[in-house]
Write a structure and sequence with these properties.
The complex is a heterotrimer.
Chain A (H helix, E strand, L loop, with lengths): L9 H10 L2 H18 L1 H4 L20 E4 L2 E15 L4 E23 L3 E10 L17 H37 L1 H16 L2 H9 L8 H31 L3 H8 L4 H9 L4 H24 L11 H7 L3 H6 L2 H28 L1 H4 L5
Antiparallel strand pairs in A: 1-2, 2-3, 3-4
Helix pairs in contact in A: 1-13, 2-4, 2-13, 4-5, 4-7, 4-9, 4-10, 4-13, 5-7, 6-7, 7-10, 8-9, 10-11, 10-13, 11-13
Chain B lengths: L5 E12 L2 E13 L4 E5 L6 H7 L9 E10 L2 E2 L5 H7 L4 E4 L3 H4 L6 H13 L3 H14 L5 H5 L8 H13 L5 E5 L7 H18 L2 E6 L2 H7 L2 E6 L2 E7 H6 L4 H9 L47 E4 L2 E3 L4 H6 L12
Parallel strand pairs in B: 3-8, 3-9, 6-7, 7-8
Antiparallel strand pairs in B: 1-2, 1-4, 4-5, 9-10, 10-12, 11-12
Helix pairs in contact in B: 4-5, 4-7, 5-7, 7-8
Chain C lengths: L1 H28 L6 H5 L5 H10 L6 H15 L4 E2 L4 E2 H36 L4 H14 L3 H15 L17 H21 L2 H16 L2 H8 L4 H38 L5 H10 L3 H29 L7
Antiparallel strand pairs in C: 1-2
Helix pairs in contact in C: 1-13, 5-6, 5-8, 5-9, 5-11, 5-12, 5-13, 6-9, 7-8, 7-11, 8-11, 9-11, 10-11, 11-13, 12-13
Classes of the chains: A alpha+beta, B alpha/beta, C mainly alpha.
Chain lengths: ~375, ~325, ~325
């Protein structure tokens, strides 16, 4: 009989399992890319989110070209356009006026990562030309730039919201399950209350507490707070169930015998054992927070104009006219939202499989 | 014996797994006559249950498939029948009961309905007539207050009762053959005896042949006429129960026999067969029992055919002749000449 | 069984009470009230505003207002008056609720009408290309948010003209025959019902598939086959009955959740349901209309859960609630 190899550490097992899921890795990569893009939004965006180009409302996306009437160019370029139908917002490309794309151009000033003052942007064209890779909206604003800035809002809402609501859910669920008695009943009745109201109705009701005309930072925080307030309830219930099981384990009794405080036992001994569930649940819940913000902004009570969010960009696409004549207003933010949600779902599924105890212990469990 | 009810010839059943193709049943042959009980005995993994499932072609597809052999019943090879004809055979001519009565009965239908269903299907009786027959059958298997029980659900009955319901369901259409796959393993000892006696009684009343799958040698001794011992997918010994138990002609049978505790004999330790069943994905080419055999010798590395030594006593050990003559003890003990 | 239903119903009442209190408090926390907009109109004197305020009872402390509200509600089924529409709340809500329920039922039909057959098909043809394709489609579809599918379908309607782009009735509705009216509403209902119905479709389908696969592995399915039953009978009579049981609970819960889910569809397709009314009411701070609306939506959700639990108890004889 051969000697048994020492069992792998949980971290090793996790990494090995995760590698088996190419979709999850793809999801993670896409998300990483999106968050980096959002982080460097002011640098990557050729224009500020609220810069209006009054001569180019509803401008369609411009194609990057390398081949012109005079052959291959070294540098990519776009054609300048002229407005041929003011009423229908139809623009024609003018092959006589190619505008080469320049890199590391100087543009509007901003603070990179919030600290470094600069005015360098990744790309742009010489003035007075404009480059609209994703077109413009009803106010002549560059859709690509708004997409990037909007990403900052929409992508972080999920993460911040999760942090708050999961902290709440873990603590309250943990206390509820461990302490029991009246506290348990009270907390569970509270969650039942919250879960009995259809979520969107409750969200809207709570949104109304915050005045419409606050500065956008505070509106943002308010929205996150609302979403988190709704979100902790179902997690708390699940955590409570898990805690009830874990509570009967011996290491908990040992901790109690050592005289640890209840809070310490809950926080440091019990809750870490729920981590594998929590990580998966968090990953799979972030999309609903992002969508919560998108919905609120879409109906006009979320992030307010002129600040950009993917939600209020979708609002631009709502009219019949936009849907038929200016579809990029839907496709661009729609694709971004869709890819983000799908990436989170892939990642969450992959994490769940990787952390599944039946897989990690090789069926010995 | 007159013409047997069932004749199985060289049955082979395989399963496809991640690690390769596994032959759970490897060249199994036997006959079953009317009014007799043939026991198929072996450990878990010996292939006895798969053999039982193969006869009515209930092996789980597509992973499992019957890869060879013939099963002659009523003049036809069951393995070659089209599906529709096979379904006619199941439940009507050949019935099967299973080990775990709780999970083998559908929890959402009443017991009466489940028994009646077979009748409606095969004999085309009206619902009313089928229900009446169901109650009749429940009474026949010894269930008190059968009308009441017929209206109840499986979870409302005890384990022994449920197994009786299974038997009633299997025998409702008066089959010629009953296959019983470990019918009493999940029951209390006292109930075991009742169930087995019930099966015996019904067997003689209806003139059925019973194929009894079990791992319990005591059950074999009490209730079977003939026995086939299986090991690692093959039959290693076959014959009449009395003579096989009196003097086994295969080391495995002897080992099984010896491991039973005996009344009146003081034993310090229970005797076990050392070692373990071989990995089905990698059977040895020769005798599959050889690594654990107390009397292994030259020649055990060759593939061992099943040979007939005395009428229908069969053994797969090439030293069986010595066992029969009494010059060698298959359990490996010293032989006092 | 009756005792169980009774306890559950009794349990609902304090729950609704809690919800009404919560909603009321939320509204009180909202800065200003319905009369804000009026106050900004220079044509209306402050005195008039004050009089209106007193008229609507908005000058009393909040607990008094709440007490009055509850008393009216319980004794007279009076949900109060809608400030902006000058109608009893109940009247305004009744029609909206009806329309939302219509949408919810149609959506449920879409969901279950597709999820069950597709799930069964995928289970019976496990590992085949059908199964894999359905799995993939399910997964991708799960990721499409309701807003996007709604807008995309609206775009489809606008571009092809196959479906109306909003509303519940055509302009010439009143001149249509009864059958024509029915078809007209169905025509308008099609896209929103599709949008809402497709949201839970993917997970229901996977659930059905997985339940059926689990049941097909069980012993009593082998018993049924051993009896000689046709495979179709085995699947549809023996296996499906058991596989559907867990889905029944889901059905009740889904119905309740559809009320919330129809919110976005109602906005996009201008469907005159509870969601639209609630949104308008909130934006104009029409207090009683909001409260009545949230209460109604919650009631539907809670009732859905109750019905689900009862259905489950009826369907599975192993479960007893005594």
């Amino acid at each position: 009989m051969e000697p048994e190899a020492p069992p792998d550490s949980p971290w090793r097992i996790f990494r090995r399992q995760l590698r088996r899921s190419p979709l999850a890795i793809a999801g993670g990569v896409v998300l990483g890319l999106f968050y980096v893009l959002a982080l460097f939004a002011p640098f990557l965006a050729p224009y500020p989110e609220d810069a209006m180009d009054r001569e180019r409302y509803f401008h369609p996306p411009q194609s990057l070209r390398w081949v012109g009437p005079d052959g291959l160019h070294l540098r990519p370029f776009v054609y300048a356009t002229t407005l041929t139908d003011a009423g229908g917002f139809v623009y024609d490309e003018d092959p006589s006026r190619p505008q080469p794309v320049r890199f590391f151009v100087r543009g509007s000033a901003y603070a990179l990562l919030g600290i470094l003052s600069t005015d360098v942007h990744l790309f742009g064209v010489d003035a007075p030309g404009r480059i609209y890779l994703f077109g413009t909206d009803a106010f002549g604003r560059d859709v690509l730039s708004r997409l990037l800035f909007g990403g900052q809002v929409s992508l972080t809402v999920g993460v911040v919201g999760i942090l708050i609501s999961f902290t709440l859910g873990l603590l309250l669920g943990g206390i509820s399950g461990y302490v029991g008695g009246l506290t348990d009943t009270a907390i569970m009745r509270g969650t039942e209350l919250l879960l009995s109201i259809p979520s969107l109705y409750l969200i809207i009701a709570m949104r109304n507490i915050i005045p419409i005309d606050l500065p956008s930072q505070q509106v943002y925080l308010g929205i996150v707070a609302i979403l988190a307030f709704i979100g902790w309830a179902s997690l708390a219930r699940v955590i409570r169930g898990l805690v009830l099981t874990i509570r009967r384990s011996e290491f908990v009794t040992a901790a109690e015998a050592l005289g640890y405080s209840r809070l310490r036992i809950i926080a440091r001994h019990i809750l870490p054992n729920t981590m594998s569930y929590v990580i998966v649940a968090a990953t799979l819940s972030i999309p609903s927070y992002i969508l919560g913000e998108v919905v609120l902004s879409f109906i006009g009570v979320g992030v307010q104009e002129p600040s950009a969010s993917w939600g209020n960009m979708l609002n631009q696409a709502r009219s019949i006219r936009a849907l038929t004549s200016f579809p990029w207003l839907l496709y661009v933010p729609g694709a971004a939202i869709f890819l983000t949600v799908m990436a989170f779902n892939f990642l969450g599924d992959g994490l769940r499989d990787a952390l599944d105890p039946r897989r990690t212990t090789g069926g010995r469990a | 014996m007159n013409e047997p009810l069932l004749r199985v010839e060289h049955l082979v059943t395989e399963f496809v797994t991640d690690t390769g193709r596994i032959r759970a049943v490897d060249d199994v042959s036997f006959e079953l006559g009317a009014g007799e009980t043939l026991a198929v005995v072996g450990e878990s993994g010996s292939g006895k249950s798969v053999t039982a499932l193969s006869l009515p072609r209930l092996v789980a597809q597509p992973r499992g498939r019957i890869a060879g052999g013939r099963v002659w019943f009523q003049g036809r090879d069951l393995l070659a029948l089209p599906d529709a004809d096979m379904r006619q055979v199941r439940g009507r001519a050949i019935s099967m009961i299973f080990q775990e009565p709780m999970t083998s009965l559908n929890p959402v239908f009443t017991c009466g309905d489940q028994v009646a269903e077979a009748v409606v299907l095969h004999e085309r009786l009206s619902r009313r007539a089928a229900q009446a027959r169901a109650v009749e059958m429940l009474a026949k298997v010894g269930i008190p207050s059968p009308e009441q029980r017929a209206r109840e659900y499986p979870h409302q009955l005890s384990g022994g009762m449920r197994q009786r319901v299974m038997i009633a369901m299997a025998l409702a259409c008066r089959p010629s053959i009953l296959i019983a796959d470990e019918p009493t393993t999940a029951l209390d000892v006292t109930i075991q005896a009742q169930i087995l006696e019930l099966i015996e009684r019904l067997k003689s009343e209806m003139g059925m042949g019973v194929l009894l799958i079990t791992h319990d040698l005591g059950v074999v001794a009490e209730h079977a006429d003939r026995v086939a011992v299986m090991y690692a997918g093959q039959i290693v010994e076959q014959g009449e129960v009395a003579s096989v138990f009196r003097g086994p002609w295969h080391p495995y049978t002897a080992g099984l026999h010896a491991s039973l505790p005996r009344l009146g004999v003081r034993q310090e330790h229970l005797r076990v067969i050392p070692g373990a069943v071989p990995n089905p994905a990698r059977f040895p080419a020769g005798c599959r029992f050889e690594p654990r055999c107390p009397v292994r010798a030259e020649g055990c590395g060759q593939p061992q055919p099943l040979v007939s030594l005395d009428g229908d006593r069969l053994s797969r050990c090439h030293r069986a002749g010595a066992f029969a003559a009494g010059t060698l003890d298959p359990a490996g003990a010293e032989v006092r000449a | 069984m009756h005792r169980y239903i009774l306890t559950r119903v009794l349990h609902t009442i304090p729950l609704l009470g809690g919800i009404s209190l919560l909603t009321f408090l939320l509204l009180q926390l909202t800065p200003g009230d319905f009369l804000n907009q009026m106050a900004e109109n220079p044509g209306i004197s402050p005195a008039t505003i004050e009089a209106m305020r007193r008229n609507f009872g908005l000058d009393r402390p909040w607990y008094v207002q709440y007490g009055l509200y509850l008393r009216n509600l319980v004794l007279h089924f009076d949900f109060g008056e809608s400030f902006s529409r000058h109608q009893p709340v109940f009247t305004v809500l009744r029609e909206g609720l009806g329309n939302t329920l219509l949408l919810a039922v149609a959506s449920a039909a879409v969901t279950w009408g597709l999820a069950l057959p597709l799930g069964i098909w995928a289970a019976v043809r496990q590992h085949s290309w059908v199964d894999r394709l359905l799995s993939l489609v399910a997964f991708v579809w799960l990721s499409i948010p309701e807003i996007l599918s709604g807008l995309l379908l609206l775009m489809l309607a606008a571009r092809t003209g196959w479906f109306p782009v909003g509303g519940m009735r055509s302009l010439d509705f009143d001149e249509l025959t009864a059958w024509g009216q029915f078809l007209d509403i169905a025509h308008h209902l099609a896209l929103p019902a599709l949008v809402v119905g497709l949201i839970p479709l993917a997970s229901r389908m996977r659930q059905m598939r997985s339940n059926l696969l689990d049941v097909l592995r069980l012993d009593y399915v082998t018993t049924a086959r051993a009896k000689g039953l046709d495979e179709r009978v085995v699947v549809f009579k023996h296996a499906l009955r058991n596989a559907l049981n867990p889905m029944i609970t889901l059905f009740g819960y889904t119905l309740g959740a559809l009320v919330s889910g129809s919110f976005i569809a109602e906005i996009i397709f201008s469907w005159p349901g509870l969601g639209r009314i609630t949104l308008d009411a909130l934006l104009t701070q029409d207090q009683y209309l909001v409260m009545g609306s949230v209460l109604m939506a919650s009631l539907v959700l809670i009732l859905g859960n109750l019905v689900a639990d009862i259905l489950l108890a009826v369907a599975d004889p192993r479960i007893s609630y005594d």
